[in-house]
Amino acid sequence: MCETKTIERFKRMSFERKLISLLKQCGVPRSSIEEIPTQLADRPVEKGVEYYYYIGPNDEKTRPFCKLMLKIDKVFTLEEINKISDELNYPVLLYKGSYNCRHEWVRFRGKRIFTPKPTIREIRKLINSGIEA
Question: Tens of pLDDT along 28-87?
């Protein structure tokens, strides 16, 4: 017989999948959700740490770096953004994908984050996609 915790976990996962599907249909990035029940959050916000998410159009004009940022759809710490900036030799928080970029970093002000922490692999891909003049 299944444990109550296992059943509750399954219900939560099922609800989360439905919620994610609905968000995608409505064009809402997961990273922009600032109010989420604790049991659905992937991680808590650490005190004193600045968090940002990336938003903007995804069309034929979108640069490879920006396409990848939108696809990753994560909440980044200022420290993670600065690491990417150091590798690309320009301030990513200021210039985003390059000059005249139509995207923006938005300060995350929620208490719980609905996206997992960006992986080293995802950050490496961003760095490798570089900038396009």
Answer: 676 666 665 555 556 778 889 999 989 999 999 999 989 988 888 888 999 999 988 988
Cα–Cα distance measured from residue 68 to residue 119, given in angstroms and rounded to the nearest whole number: 13
CA distance 81 to 95: 12
- Name 46's Cβ contacts closer than 8 Å, sequence gap at least 6: none
Percent over 70 (pLDDT), the chain: 67
Tokens of 72: 């990753």
**Model confidence, pTM:** 0.68
Nearest to 93 by CA among 10, 85, 101: 85
How far apart CA 105 and CA 90 sit, in angstroms, is 15
Amino acid at 131: I
